[in-house]
Structure formats: C-alpha cells, structure tokens
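anyone seen this seq b4? input:
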Amino acid sequence: MIFSRDYIGYLARRTVKHLIDAKLITTSDLKGCEARVAEGLIEELSLEDRINEEVRVILDAYSDEMRKSGAQYAEMFKKVKTELARKYKAVL
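predicted toks r here
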C-alpha cells in the first residue's frame, strides 16, 4: 500500500470532520464513523496491491511464452494491469 495506516487514519478523521462541517453527514459515534471510513480507504487503496499480485501470477504462468516471443515484462505488466483494472472497474 502506498500510504501508512497512520496516514490513512488521519485522512479518515479529516474526511469525517469535513463531511460533518459541511453538514453532509451526522453521527453520534464519531470514532466508529472514522474507523469505518478508514476501513473503506484501506480496502480501496489495497485494491492496487491485489491487482499487482494477480498480474505477477499471470505473467509467471506465461513467462516461457514471453521469453520465446521476446515480450518485455514491464510492457506486459502494464497491459495486464490495465485489463484487470478494467475488469474490476478500478481507477488506478
């Protein structure tokens, strides 16, 4: 993940504070709300990590074919990652 959990907690607190100040949400459990927002952020941010791992598994399976055809790993990584992001409807 590109951000530390501490920073994600900070982002969650700031996001909840902004939403409350803008009167877009109300809550009686501020800490619980912040925790749920942090969990959502972590889930979204870890999606790219999961996609990257899936790309590595796919490319490992086709490594011999890639070597025979002279395909570049970085180029194939980018193409497969783009396709998986489209499949999962992720914005990376």
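The chain has one domain: 5-87. DSSP finds four helices and no strands in the chain. kinda curious what u guys think
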